[in-house]
Amino acid sequence: MGKRAGWAALIAAGVGLALFITLFSPFASGHPDGLERVAEDHGFHHQAKGPVFEIIPDYAVPGVKNERVATILSGVIGVLIVAAIGLIVGYSLKRVARSRAASGSLPSAPESTTSGPPGTI
Question: Which member of 11, 17, 84, 106 lies 3.0 to 4.6 Å from 100 by CB, making a disulfide possible if both were Cys?
């Protein structure tokens, strides 16, 4: 397996694992997170402002009647959005590095001084 195929398999496995984990999202705790809990305990939770923009409000896809399915779908959408952004950023950085190396603005890797396989003297 080549270097590129190895990275592709690793990325696919990571995304696949994240997608598999979303199946368990309906079973997550219904209790508020730490910040919300402190706000409730100290009586200032009513002062909190919601986000200006929400892609998936309340972690559930609007229009889906089954709450568990809506939660799972929101997780799947979130995983795919984050994976796409990560791949776009990674690809862009790789292109920038290649163009800089081609133009000579980045130092090239040092030449090996050994004649044998890596790790030999």
Answer: 106
Query: Residue-wise over 35-64: b if at least 16 C-beta within 10 A, else e?
Result: eeeeeeeeeeeeeeeeeeeeebeeebbeee
Report the C-alpha gap between 13 and 19 in whole angstroms: 10
What does each C-alpha distance from 29 to 26, 54, 57, 92, 96 come to in angstroms?
9, 21, 18, 38, 43
Q: How far apart are CA 120 and CA 102, in angstroms?
A: 30
Spatial separation of the C-alpha atoms in residues 117 and 84, rounded to whole Å: 37
pLDDT in tens, 91-100: 999 999 988 8
